[in-house]
Amino acid sequence: MRVPLSWLVEYVELEPNATPHDVMAELVKVGLEEEGAHGGDIRGPIVVGKVIEFVEEPQANGKTIRWCQVEVAPGVVNGIVCGARNFFEGDKVVVTLPGSALPGGFEIAARKTYGHVSDGMIASSRELGLSDEHEGILRLQTLGLDPEVGTDALELLGLNESAAEVNVTPDRGYCLSIRGIAREYAHASGVKFTDPISRVNPKQAAGFEVVVTDTAPIHGVQGCSRFTTLEVRGIDATAKVPGWMANRLKLAGMRSISIAVDITNYVMLELGQPLHAYDADKLVGGITVRRAQMGERLVTLDEKDRELHPQDLLICDQAGPIGLAGVMGGARTEVSETTKNVLIEAAVFDPISIARSARRHKLPSEASKRFERGVDREVGPYAAARVAQLLIELAGGELSGVGSSYSLNEPPVEIELPFTFASELVGVDYPNQQILDVLHQIGCELRVHDDAVAVTPPSWRPDLRHKTDLVEEVARLVGYDRIPVRIPVAPPGRGLTPRQQLRRRVLNGLSGAGFVEVLNYPFCSSEQNGAFSSVEAVALENPIQSDFPQLRLSLLPGLLSAAARNLSRGASSVALIEEGSVFLPAPAEPVLELPVGNARPSEEVLAALKAAIPVQPRHIAGLMFGDWIPQGPGQQPVQAGFPQALMAVEQVVRAAGLGHEIHQEPVQGLHPGRSARIMVLGTEIGLVGEVDPAIAQEYHLPRRIGVFELNLDALHQLAPSVLQASELRVMPAATQDISLVVSQDVVAGDLAAAISEGAGELLESIQVVDLYVGPGLPQGTKSVTFSLVFRAIDKTLTQAEASASRDAGVAVAAQKYGASLRS
Fold first, then answer.
1. CA 520, 522, 528, 530 torsion: positive or negative?
2. Are 524 and 557 in contact (CB under 8 A)?
3. Is 469 annotated as a binding residue?
4. Domain boundaries, the chain
5. Count of CB atoms within 10 A of residue 365's CB?
6. Would you give the distance in Å from CA 328 to the centre of its chain?
7. Res 581 pLDDT > 90
8. CA distance 132 to 127
9. CATH class of segment(s) 46-157
10. DSSP annotation of 137
11. Residue 581 needs a FRET pair 20 to 30 A away by CA distance; which of 9, 106, 159, 721 works?
C-alpha cells in the first residue's frame, strides 16, 4: 500500500518535513513492513510561465518548431524552443528552468537547438509525471487554474509530494486505505486521528430497485451482505482530473483514466471501500445480485469475453450480467465520455467467493484484493456519498435522490476475553486497564464483568474473531519489545531422525567429492518428463508457466537445464547434485471440488483428499561433464562420465551401510550401451549411466554426460537401523591379478560375484582393472582382468593359501559362465 504523505497529513499530524522513511519507522512499530519510498525525484526551479508570443519555424527535417517568448517571472522573459503546437499566446504553462530535473533523471539545461539557445522547456503532463498520455503541452487553464506568473509549479500541482509504501498482511485488509494507515500511524505515534468518514454525510436515497437472490449460498455464507447505490446526474464526463488528484493516484500506484473512474479509485484508496460507477442510462431496469447460470458470458472492462462459472457472483440488470461482483465491471454499462448520469455502487461481498472468482478468471484487481481481505460493512454509504460529493465538485453533477440501500442483518460478534488470558499467552504482565485502553483504542466496544471483558470488534476489523486475536492486538500496540526473549531448552534424547541423518551423510559426502548442490523448480514440460519416464505425469490445474504444466517425474530434467545455464555462462566442467521430491500419480482420482474454507471436512472427504495427493518420494540425483580431473603437469585430463557416476552411486549406497549390484541394461533417456539399474538387496533403487547424446544435444550440452538418480526413501527403508563398522584388519594383504576369458555377453559384475562366492572370506576386495577384445582371443569372447586382495583376520597369508582361494573362485566362475584363465 502506497501512502502519499500529503494525503495522510489530512487525518493525522505529521512532524514538519517528515519523510516517507520517518512515517514507515512509526508504522513498523505496529507490525506493518517497510517496502520503500516513492516520489521526490523531481526538483525545481519549475514555475508557471505565460506564453507572450511565438514564431513557427519550419525545419529542414520536415518538422516545424515554435520559437517562444515565455514570461517566467514578472518582467523576466526566456526564449524557449518547443515542438508542440497545442498552446496559444496568453496561455499559462509549466516551465522547467535550467537546473531542474524531471522524473527519470531528465536534467534540464540551457542548450542550443534549431538555431536558438533554449533557456528551459515547456512541459507536458507526461513529462511532469502527471499522466501516461501525451496530449501536448499542459495548459493550466484546462485544469481550472489561473496562477500568477512565477508561481512554484511543484507546489501548485503537488509534484513535490512523496509516498511511503508498506506491506499489508492478508489479515489486516483495513490498512489498504489511507483511513486504515492513518489509524495505525496514530496508534504508533500517539497523535490524534481524524476519521475521514466524519467529514462525509451519507445521503438518503430511494427509488432504485436492488434485489439479492443468492438463494444457495456458497460455504453457508451469502455472497452479498450490503449494497448501496446513489445516482448523480448531469456530470461532465470529459472534465479534467485535477492535478492534485492525478498526482495522488500516481503516487499511490494507479494511473489517471477519467474523472468518474479516478474519483471512484480515489475514494477506494481513501476509505478502503471498492466502488463502481455505471452509466445509468445504459442500465436496463434495476440491479440483481445473483450467481451465474450455466452458459452465461460477460464482456468485462478489459474487453475480454469470459465464460462464467456457476459459483461466480454477478451484478445484473434485466438484460443480463453487467459485472463480475467484487472483481471487474462489464463493458456494456461502462462510463464513457458521453456519460451524463452515473449510478454509484458501494457493496460488501463475501471474501471467499470473490477470491475464488478472481483466481478462476485470473483477474486480480484492486477491488478484489480488498474484498478478499475483508471490507468495513458500515463504510459503504459514506463512500458512495464521498464519490457523489467529488462528482458534484469536480464534474458539475447533482444528486437526483435516486438510490437504494440493501443490508443483511448480521448481529455483531461478541468475544469473551478473560483478563488473565493475555499474560498467560504472551508471557507479559498486562494490567487490566492497559488491556482495556488498547481495545478501546482500536475501536472495540467493551463490557466489563467479573474478571473478563466482553469485546465487540469494530466493523472495519473482520479479522478479530477470537480472544487470541484480541491478545495479538494488545501485544502489537503495547510493543513487541516488551515480550521477553527466552532461549528454549532442547529436550534430551532428540536430534536428527535416521532419514535426516542419511540425507546429511549423502549430501556431505557428495559435496566433499566435488559436487555442487542445486535446487531446481519441480515443474517440467511433457517432453522433459517423457524423455526419462513413461509414467503418466501429474498435471497442474493452474501452472505458473504454461510451458511447464507438469510436476517432475525425475530430477534429471532440472539438472540438465541447470547444467545448460552453467555451460552458457562459461563453466566447461560441471558436477551438480540435487536432493528433492519427484511426483508420481496418486492411486485415487483427483478431487476437483475443494471443500469450503470455514468448516472442517468430513472424514470421507479428508480420506479422498489424502488419497488424491501424488506419491512424493525423495530422490538424490547427480550430473557431471567436462574434466573430472583437470590437466596438469604430468597429468592428462580425465573426462567425467559413466565411471564417475558409478563412483558417486557407490558413495551414496555406502553411506547407507549397504552394498549394491549393477545390472547393465537399456534405460530410457540414457546411452544404450552405457546405462544400468542399481539393485540393493534385490530391490531396484535407481539408475546410472550417461545421457543419450540426442537428449544432450537438445539441451546444447556435450555428448558425454554422466548421471545417476537414486530413490533415497527406498534406500532408507533398506538401510540397517544401526550402521555396523567394518572390522579393522591388521594382517598383511596378499594381492593377485587374474584374467578370465568369457563370452562377450557375460556381465563383468556377475563374473566378479561368482569369483567372490568361490574365494570365500579370505577375499577382501575384487576390482575390474582391464577389459580386452581382439586378436589372440576366440571369436565372440573377451578377457576381463581382476585385481584381487586377500587377507586373513588372525594370521599372515601365504601365497599358497591366497592362490587356493583364487583357484576356488575361478572354479565357480568356470562352472557358472565357462570362464577360463587367459594364457
1. positive
2. yes
3. yes
4. 2-35+164-194, 46-157, 206-407, 416-482, 499-593+603-718, 734-821
5. 19
6. 23
7. yes
8. 9
9. mainly beta
10. B
11. 721
DSSP for 311-334 reads T-EEEEETTEEEEETTTEEBSTT-
CATH architecture, domain 2-35+164-194: 2-Layer Sandwich (3.30)
Of 155-169, 284-298, 594-608, the least confident: 594-608
Number of H helices, E strands in the chain: 21, 42
Residue pair 184/32 in contact by the 8 Å Cβ criterion = yes
Measured in degrees and rounded to the nearest 5, phi and psi for residue 261 equal: -65, -40
Task: For the chain, give the percent of residues with pLDDT over 70.
Answer: 98
- Cα gap 578→507, rounded to integer Å: 9
Can the peptide bond before residue 522 be classed as cis, meaning omega within 30 degrees of 0? no
| Cell representation of residue 666 | 537399456
CA–CA separation, 325 vs 468, rounded Å? Answer: 32
Collapsing DSSP to helix, strand or coil, 785 comes out as: strand
CA distance 355 to 363: 10
CA–CA separation, 223 and 616 (whole Å): 38
- What confidence score (pLDDT) does residue 217 get? 66
Query: How confident is the model over 137-152, as pLDDT tens digits?
Result: 888 888 778 889 999 8
Fold match, 2-35+164-194 / 206-407: no
Q: Which helix (H) or strand (E) holds 618?
A: strand 618-625
CATH architecture of 499-593+603-718: 2-Layer Sandwich (3.30)
- What is the architecture of the domain spanning 206-407? 3-Layer(bba) Sandwich (3.50)
- Using only C-alpha atoms, the chain has a radius of gyration, in whole angstroms, of 39
Q: Which residues contact 746 (CB under 8 A, 6 or more apart)?
A: 782, 817, 819
Give the model's pLDDT for residue 445.
Answer: 94
What are the cell numbers at 314?
454477478
DSSP secondary structure of 189-235: H---B--GGGG--PPP-EE--EEE---S-BTTB-SEEEEEEEEEES-
* pLDDT higher than 70, residue 666: yes
The dotted CATH code for 416-482 is 3.30.56.10
Closest CA to 230 of 260, 203, 265: 203
Least Cα distance to 357 among 290, 301, 311 occurs for 311
Place of cell 489486516: 172
* Measured distance CA(725)–CA(588) in Å, rounded: 43
Share of the chain above pLDDT 90, in %: 60
**Which of 512, 523, 430, 422 lies closest to 467 in space, CA to CA?**
422
Q: Hey, how many other C-beta atoms are within 10 angstroms of the C-beta on 10?
A: 12
Q: Where are the beta strands (DSSP E) in 408-528?
A: 415-418, 445-449, 452-456, 516-517, 523-524
Q: Which fold has domain 734-821?
A: Alpha-Beta Plaits (3.30.70)
Residue located via cell numbers 501485544: 475
State phi, psi for 501 to the nearest 5 degrees: -65, -40
pLDDT tops 70 at residue 133: no
CA dist 770 → 71, 257, 463, 706 (Å): 95, 79, 73, 20
Integer Cα distance of 324 and 289 in angstroms: 10
Residue 562, classed as helix, strand or coil, is helix
Q: Give which of 570, 673, 689 is closest to 640, Cα–Cα.
A: 689
The model's pLDDT over 4-33, given as tens digits with 9 standing for 90+, comes to: 998 999 999 998 888 889 999 999 998 898
Say which DSSP state 533 is in: -
Mean pLDDT across the chain? 90
The answer on whether 463 is annotated among ligand-binding residues is yes
Beta bridge partners of 709: 621, 687
DSSP for 69-127? EEEEETTEEEEEEE---S--TT-EEEEE-TT-EETTTEE---EEETTEEE-SEEPBTTT
Residue 180 pLDDT > 90: yes
